[in-house]
Design a protein that fits this description.
Among the domains are: 212 residues, no CATH class; 132 residues, C8orf32 fold (Roll), CATH 3.10.620; 144 residues, no CATH class. It is 45% helix and 12% strand. The chain has 26 helices and 18 strands. A five-stranded antiparallel sheet has the order 9-12-6-1-16, with no helix packed on it. A five-stranded antiparallel sheet has the order 8-2-15-17-18. The chain is elongated, with a radius of gyration of 40 Å. The two termini are 55 Å apart. Keywords: Membrane, Transmembrane, Transmembrane helix.
């Protein structure tokens, strides 16, 4: 090693100049470039990429609320660059670099993308890990569909975090590992700008019609990129280093830079003002991607209840085929109340219990809480019905359009939790569809008597009249169980109230509506008068005031007899009812509307004049009173109900997917390569003794090559041993001795027993293990993914000692003659 420069680092795969093996490998070994520390040029490249990528990340500010996206985006960008530089310093392959990126993403994602939810604002927890996993996959969907400025869901900042990290990793790897190999090629320098350019374009596409500092960012981006390409050594016209330092050339570069900057600012800024397209013609993805269906843009279905009973009472709306006695046709489930209307939850207020309307295909997802009853195949043919809400039975699993609506399947939106579907283009005469559906099984009263309501989160209800809260407490009486209290309210409304649609033929007037004033009027009149709209609304408000989740469902209840194949549904079949979820069973229907229509003459239908007691409304609480919970029990006798309680959260599946895919990408190739190496060893051990001995040397050389040492493609065993000894001095003596022993065994011409071959195999395996132990952990891991199965030149020319032994025998025979 006397001829080796002291500054040269000897590593596997590199032969230092002046060594004994230098003559044999000239032209074979590439020039060695130390991975660390990085040259100053690479740090400048990384700084330029960071600034350009930061300009691209600013584009996300057009759609996001606040400046939290800068912490997520710039933090992800810095972490990505750190992973890329560390990958070069530690000589990681692509797989290990990818796994390192996933690890860093998971560790720091909580602090950068979801600090408000993270433990102590920095530590990850199950919620943040699930959130950043979902945000990394579906964050783009929220960007282009939700209304701006975006501040929810909590994982919304994951997209700039992921985008910045990916651009940082790729750009850093290109800057420190790929670009220095041929820095004089200008195209390679330009390719380094691809990542920041893509990030800039992503900010534009995911933004809004109103750009975020478009002119300033665009000019700055172009100016920095052009100046870097012009000044970077090796990226210009290829002038040599000596010429580049002359005062004349430097002066020309400075003048050119000033002119370029001035032209970019004046021309670019002027063009941005004069030739920039109008704001409404700016192309952004949110203008071409269909946003989520917002039912709040349409009138509440319950608000049009009286239209069916008055104007469309005898109108044939549609024909339903496949119904059974007792089936109800549902239109929509309303679970949000603001003192004026019961409405369907919109995207901004939707919860897991209320669900959201999503774009679906022919097959529809099922609800989280339902006990399957009987199946139906129902066909609907529209005649006089005209609305977006799709009439259906139960919870459909498949919906196929026909008739005039056959080509509008992309307009279907479905809410799995409520079982309601809409066609955004609307239904009209001539449209039809067929659905495969499952009804909700109705448990027995005995079962429900001891079952608590399910812990379902619904959007809040507000502005409940005090009289409704007071009447709810009055109607429940001494009942303590959830079903007992709900049945008591239902029975009281049915027996003390009267039904009237406010028609001229009705014996008593009944005002339409279900706002707070109409609810107060319902309970201040003697007797109570209303129809399904008022009674269902009142029952749902009473249930919600007691802490029970309840929703109002509007639909149709046609008379169906046994064996009837089809029924004509008219406007007078309209109805409304209330559903409350029970733990382990699903949503149970309640019908609080009375059947009696004739009001006794001695009853005064005018409202009372005496003031009603002012009862303070209790605050909304998701927790039931202790007295309701302690007496409630669940029947554990049904094994099926036990199994229904085991629900794996969705974030667990996504976390398993995020972790499982990288692990599979690591483990599967490792198992395949390990299997190939074992087959290679078995093949070389087989055969005669001299063949097995030659195979031991071939196996050792391949192991050295897989560890990263340079092995000549065509050289004798002694030459190969000398070259490897120069790279790994500790094994020089052993390798030389092993090479000599192998040559003697293979070319001696004598028969070789398996004991001698096994001894050579043991020596080669010991030498390979020693060489592997001399390397670092990362180098050993890389060797696991390398596979080499080439025999040396001598082994290829003389694969066995049989030829030599045959020649020796021939010579002895000739001498004997």
């Amino acid at each position: 090693m006397s001829g080796v420069d002291e500054r040269t680092t000897v590593r596997p795969g590199r032969v230092p100049a002046g060594s004994a093996a230098d003559v044999d490998v000239q032209g074979i070994v590439p020039t060695f470039v130390a991975p660390w520390p990085l040259p100053g040029r690479s740090w400048i490249d990384l700084a330029v990429v960071f600034v350009l990528a930061a300009l691209g990340l600013l584009g996300f500010g057009a759609a996001l609320s606040g400046t939290g996206f800068l912490l997520a985006g710039l933090g992800g960008l810095a972490l990505g660059m750190a992973v890329g530089v560390a990958s070069h310093a530690l000589r990681l392959n692509a797989l290990l670099t990818g796994l390192s990126t996933v690890l860093v993403f998971s560790v720091f994602g909580s602090a950068l993308a979801m600090p408000s939810v993270a433990t102590f604002a920095v530590l990850p927890n199950l919620r943040t890990l699930g959130g950043i996993s979902i945000g990394a996959v579906f964050g783009w969907k929220d960007f282009v569909t939700l209304q701006t400025p975006l501040s929810a869901p909590a994982y919304i900042m994951t997209l700039p975090y992921v985008a910045g990290m990916l651009v940082g990793v790729v750009s850093a790897v290109l800057a420190v590992r790929w670009l220095p190999r041929r820095p004089q090629v200008a195209v390679r320098c330009a390719i380094l700008l691809v990542g920041p350019t893509v990030l800039y374009a992503l900010g534009v596409l995911l933004g809004t019609q109103t750009p975020f500092l478009a002119a300033v960012r665009g000019i700055a981006f172009a100016l920095i990129a052009l100046l870097w390409l012009g000044w970077r050594p090796g990226a210009g016209r290829g002038e040599n280093a000596a010429a580049s330092t002359t005062a004349v050339l430097r002066r020309k570069k400075i003048i050119g830079t000033v002119v370029l900057a001035a032209v970019a600012v004046v021309v670019g800024g002027g063009a941005a003002v004069v030739a920039s397209p109008p704001t409404d013609s700016r192309f952004v993805l949110r203008e071409v991607v269909t946003p989520p269906f917002d039912p709040l843009k349409y009138p509440s279905p319950l608000a049009g209840f009286r239209e069916y009973t008055k104007d469309l009472a005898e109108t044939k709306l549609f024909t339903a085929t496949g119904l059974k006695p007792g089936d109800r046709i549902r239109l929509a489930a309303m679970d949000s109340y603001d003192g004026r209307l019961w409405t369907v939850s919109g995207p901004s207020t939707a919860t897991d219990g209320s669900g959201a309307f999503e774009l679906v295909g022919d097959h529809l997802p099922g609800p989280q809480l339902m006990t399957p009853g009987t199946d139906r195949r129902v066909s609907i043919d529209i005649t006089g019905y005209d609305d977006i809400w799709v009439p259906g039975v139960g919870y459909p699993s498949a919906l196929t359009l026909d008739g005039k609506a056959a080509d509008r399947s992309e307009d279907i939106r479905y809410n799995a939790e409520s079982g309601a579907a809409v066609i955004t283009s609307g239904l009209g005469a001539g449209d039809g569809y067929e659905e495969q559906t499952t009804t909700q099984a109705v448990p027995s009263e005995t079962t429900l008597a001891t079952t608590p309501t399910a812990a379902v989160e619904l959007p809040p209800v507000t502005n409940i009249p005090d009289i409704v809260v007071a009447k709810a407490s009055e109607f429940v009486g001494t009942e303590t169980t959830p079903m007992g209290q709900l049945r008591a309210i239902e029975q009281t409304l049915r027996t003390t109230g009267f039904l009237s649609h406010g028609l001229a033929s009705d014996s008593s007037p009944s005002r339409a509506g279900h706002g707070a004033d109409r609810m107060s009027e319902l309970f201040t009149r003697t007797p109570m008068v209303g129809d399904e709209e008022q009674y269902a609304s009142a029952f749902a408000l009473m249930a919600r005031s007691l802490g029970y989740p309840a929703r109002v469902v509007m639909g149709f209840a046609p008379e169906v007899t046994e064996g009837q194949t089809s029924v004509q549904v008219v406007g007078d079949d309209v109805t409304a009812w209330v559903e409350v979820p029970f733990e382990g069973y699903g949503w149970v229907a309640f019908s609080p509307t009375p059947d009696e229509t004739e009001i006794p003459q001695d009853q005064d239908p005018k409202p009372k004049t005496e003031p009603q007691p002012q009862v303070r409304q209790p605050p909304r609480s998701d927790n039931l009173d202790d007295s309701l919970l302690t007496e409630a029990s669940i029947d554990d006798g049904d094994d099926k109900d036990k199994n229904d309680g085991l629900v794996i959260p969705e974030w667990v599946w996504w976390l398993a997917l995020i972790v499982g895919v990288p692990v599979s990408l690591y483990v599967i190739p490792l198992l395949a390569i390990s299997g190939a190496k074992r087959r290679r060893t078995r093949r070389r051990r087989a055969g005669s003794g001299d063949r097995s001995a030659a195979g031991a040397w071939d196996e050792l050389i391949d192991r050295y090559a897989e560890l990263g040492y340079t092995v000549p493609p065509a050289a004798t065993r002694s030459t190969t041993a000398s070259m490897l000894g120069a790279q790994e001095p500790e094994g020089a003596t052993t390798l030389t001795a092993l090479a000599g022993t192998t040559d003697d065994v293979v070319f001696s011409g004598r028969d070789v027993d398996y004991t001698t071959a096994d001894e050579l195999w043991q020596r080669s395996e010991a030498e390979a293990s020693r060489a592997q132990g001399a390397l670092g952990w990362f180098a050993r891991q890389r060797s696991r993914f390398r596979y080499r199965a080439k025999r040396s030149l001598v082994s290829r020319l003389q694969p066995s000692g049989a030829l030599a032994r045959r020649a020796a025998r021939d010579q002895r025979a000739a001498g004997g003659r």
